[in-house]
Amino acid sequence: MGWSTKKGETPAPAQQGVPANFVDSMDATNYISMELEKPMGIVFEENDESKFGGIYVVSMSEGGNAEKTGVLQTGDQLVAVGMTNVAGQSFDDALGAIVESDAPKTKLVLFRGSAKDMYGPTGASKAWLQEFIDSGSAQA
Fold it and tell me: Which end of the chain, N or C, is less surrounded by CB atoms within 10 Å?
């Protein structure tokens, strides 16, 4: 509750609650991981770079490896490839991490929320996200 500087006025109540569509980017349950063979069948697009950076899933190829898993959803934010943090990176750099992976199956870690939830003022700290990626604890 705020303070009023004028005599006799009651302060405006502090805004309570969280927006209904808020997804906590520091809650491990809001992340998924999957291991996919190439070609993965995922179409990524860059978030509005002037606001957030990073890339997200815009669609999946029908019958492609990603679609077959039934796990990936459009709008998922790519945050790691294997143990490499790609959160907030440019399209070329983030996609480059997938292309450069020579593993038979490439592990992707994705945040199931919006770019605003991931990179905005309530987004995960860089330290938390790196610790999360290093722990390998994203849900499969």
Answer: N
pLDDT tens-digit readout, 41-99: 999 999 997 889 999 999 999 999 999 999 999 999 999 999 999 999 999 999 999 99
pTM (predicted TM-score):
0.84
- Distance CA(139)–CA(55), nearest Å, equals 20
Give 90: exposed, middle or buried? Use CB within 10 Å, 0-12, 13-18, 19+: middle
Q: Give the span between the Cα atoms of 122 and 40, in whole angstroms.
A: 31
Residue 124 burial by Cβ neighbours in a 10 Å radius (0-12, 13-18, 19+): buried
**Environment class of 25 (CB within 10 Å of its CB; exposed 0-12, middle 13-18, buried 19+):** buried
